[in-house]
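Database export, one record per block. Field names are fixed; values are copied verbatim from the stored entry.
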Amino acid sequence: MNKEKNGFTLVETLIGIIIFSAAATMFYWSVRAATKESVFSGNHFSALMLSQKVSEDIMEEFSVNPYGDETLLLNSKEYGHPNLIEGNSIFFAALEDTKAPWGLIDSATDGGIDSHHATLYAQLKGFVLSTSSHDEYFSGFSQEAANLKKINLSFSWKTNLDQGLMGKEFYVFAPREAKNFADPFANLDYESLGLEDAVKALLPGNSDFSKPLPEIISSLGGDEKILFELAAAQILCSNFFNSPMFLELTKENTTLNEELPWVTDPRTILQKRKKIADNWYCLSQTAISVVAAVSQILSTFDKNEKVEAALEGLDQFQLRQYLMNVKMLYRYLLNSLAAARYNLQLVFSSSDFKILETLQQEKIILKLLDIYRILAFAPGYDNGKSEYTGFIKRAKQMFNWKNRSLYRFFDYEENLALDQNKLLKNFPNLQLPHKILTEQVPKTFAFIQSQLE
């Protein structure tokens, strides 16, 4: 007689357990595989975002400083391959202002990624960054291409579930070579100075005036060119203050200064101040071209017998007046640079400076620094060096933990300011004005003094 079945047999139970275990195991491994794949994809995405952030920081650094590879320690072996947490990496040390005093990131208390950023800290804990830079010279291409620098980034990570490596390569423009400046005479714009007709009158009557003036002048030879340059320099110096460019920019600055007290909009005030500074700077650029042209001649006149003989035949009163004009022009050059610096300094130190676009701010800062550099070695400007170093210290204090790119730039500049030869080597575009102001101008003044005694 069949008995009714009241439950599972042992075999059936064991089979059920095996099936359940197999299903559970398959589910576990599928979940684990999916988790690993998710972690793998997540880490790659994080590395992609991190490389974008670092590359933008590097490009910003090079936009103000051609020596960004040094200020960012891109090739430093001592700096090693830092992880991204606890402020160990330059690129992740000034991220957020989290504690008072507000408006200033304190490297000791905030700025980096620490355990308080729980999710981000856990996500980036296993990441390590390595960097390098390489000079790239493209033979046959433009000078700009020759100043490209290749940057390599590499992010590696290792976690309990995943490890990986991702690299990125890009180029930045880092000009370190001096520009090719033309001869001072060839670089003068006679037309804007209103001297084109006067200069033409000095040239031989058979000159081909369909050609540019610099080309005609460079074709002159021997004594003919010396006589022309002496007469042209005298005209340039004597007529500089009556030139259309000088009169126009001076008049515009007078108008702008009269308008400023009535302007209330902060951005308009800054723009007008900047325009005044730009006009003064333009006048100083023309003035230094004239000073360079004049001093290029007069600096070679001292103890030159041929020159002395030629000067004896000139009207001595007119000669003295001309030489005094040279001294007055040089003093004007210093004053115009100082006036440009004064107005740029007002813009830079204004509480409204931050409303200007970042690129415009950087241009103002770099132009201001250029003026400080030139006045630091200009003869007759006694406080130039102390004002230059003082500005660097103030700028460092201003940008410390606010704009790290500019802070590092001024920190680098502070070291260069201690050694003028090092400064000129690092910024070769300063070499020509340095030569004019420290070599030619003193010799010119020595000659002028000998004639005025």
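Remark 1: The longest strand covers residues 148-158.
Remark 2: The first helix runs from residue 10 to 64.
End of record.
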